[in-house]
Amino acid sequence: MSFFLGIDAGGSNCRARLIDADGTVIGTGSGGTANARIGLAALHDTLRAVTQDAVAQAGLNPDQVATIRAGMGIAGISRPGVRAALQDFPFPFATVAYETDALIANLGAHRGGDGAILILGTGSIAQVRVAGRDFTIGGYGFPISDEGSGAALGLSAMRHALRALDGRTRATPLSRAVTERFGHDTAQAIAWMDRATPGDYGSFAPLVMDHAETDDVIARSIVEDAVQHVERFIETIFERGATRCTLMGGLAPRLTPWLRARTVARISPALGDALDGALYLAGYRVKD
Question: pTM of this prediction?
């Protein structure tokens, strides 16, 4: 009997799912941050720990472990040298296939078929598969890219808030809520920006959405601008040949009500999750 192992290794956590040849889940594992930015040694330690947890839960012996075919989606794998270094990671499995975490999410969303996902979280990126060919749209990094993302919403909110403190624009409940975090002090805001990460800017996204939903004029304009980028993302996805598109990421549910009805009508629900995609990458195929 063969076994299949799927790994979703992302910026916030790492998950494992072990199944038998019939697709029955026989083991799982979870761990902390597992992207390439934490260093190859730390990444390998996390991957090994979650796979060992899944194997132990399944109760497999060494001979059975040797039959496992693994698929791993890893955030940051596209960084120079990472993919080659992964080939040297020692695992006691029959095969190990590596890809990005976005690619396995797309495989899972469409059960390995053609389609696309648009991820709207701290950043934004589209992962697309057309006629079996995989490519991305956007996702070049904040602040030059990541349109329609949480970080972009936060950056716009900070710009408005500072202008309001200067008196260059009218203060609104949103601007006051943002500057309250800095004691309404421009110097403190600048000190924060000197070390702020995309995630720090993204932390303002729920605040922007909350105020947009209560009709704050500036918050609405920020969200409406973000929605224009999301709409264009989706249009481009279909122009590039995708037959399905699924929205993912923490910001997606909050932005969806702002999209035009005709755009929402083109969005398809996910058929599976990223671990399903990792198992597809490993070679598992759902039996009809």
Answer: 0.87
